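Any chance you could type out a protein's amino acid sequence plus the matching backbone structure tokens because I've never seen that pairing?

——
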Amino acid sequence: MLTTSVCLYFQKLNINESNMIMIYLLGVLITAYITESKLYSIISSVLAVLSFNYFFTRPYMTVVSMDSGYTFTFFIMFFVALFVSSITKKIKEQAKQSYLKAYSTQIMLDMSQKLQQAKNVEEIDEITIEQIKKLLDCDVLLFEPNKEPVSTVYECFPIRNTDTVFLNAAIPAKRYKSATEFEKNLFSAMLRESALAYEKETITQTKNELLLKHKQEELRSTLLRAISHDLRTPLTGISGNADILLNNADVISGEKKHQIYSDIYDDSIWLLNLVENLLSVTRFDKNEINIKKESEFISDVIQEAVSHIGRRKNNYNIKIEITDESLSAKVDARLISQVVFNLVDNAMKYSPVNTTITIGAYAEGKDIKVFVSDQGNGISDEDKKSIFDMFYTVNNAVSSDSRRGLGLGLALCKAVVEAHGGTICVTDNKPEGTIFEFSLEGDFYE
């Protein structure tokens, strides 16, 4: 009707009949473009011929034409209209297929990229649900393959590879039945993509478990070797000194006895500290440590650590420098005190006697910085890279005793500080010596 109205208007302007035919062909073309069924194109082609014959050939307002030549024109017009509409339909279908192909490629690429970035099974679950929802616009449920279907209103589909079902995906049965073939194919492709991600994550977890098991076995072997080697010296010393006291107590002078008692005490304290570090490291390695944070004055924590150093502190000038006695932080006082103790013990081990060891604390922004500095031989840049690794020791100790550490103290310090959300580092103390410094979150009063 619209095409005929336009042609009637152009007729008043004395437009040639051939132009009328082109207008009707344009109408058929537009009809083919905006409709889905091919039937509409055929009907519009027939109506175009009949309308042209009825309104624009003599005699007007009748389907009978006076000019026999118009019969051929009508046939040509019909077939041209039908051909043009068919071509338009084909182009439209090709455009639709191209769009669907591009859309499926994009959605699968998007899903693939997100799955590659997933760090665990939970993230894979979230991405799978999100992408299926984006495609089908419906609820999506994931459940274990050994569980019963959530409801009869849901249809279940396995997320699987060739021999393993990882999960089942459930979507409303009505929505799946109403889905187009394209949507169903894309949905199946999504399930396969998710299965690959689950398979990759399973392989990664298996490798990590094997690696962890190997690491634990290696740690156990290293620990046993280290303990059997490094505990022998103090244990032999304690045993030998005890034997001397038992068998020769009457002939040993009081001064010599005092020296033997002191040696036994020092060896015992060394063993006690070693066992304490060993137990703490083991608990951290198994995630069995229970950190109880409370607001503590840093000065009290440092004093507690210094009080446990023992007689060796008399050989050094221990200085405590705290900018503000009210500095406090939410910490596990026992663990942080052990960190300070280990750092001071380490400083004494690698510093000459009668030198100064400084323990200090100050506020920096929202953090509390705690440091221990010494005047020893320092640590090389190469050793600094591994100084906090378990069982790593530096062979430049200057203390007079022959006991060698297991390399647990600094590893424990790092584990404790990081468990408190802080960091620990080592720097040079100019002109000589080393500074160990760690940060804790301050507990400042407004």
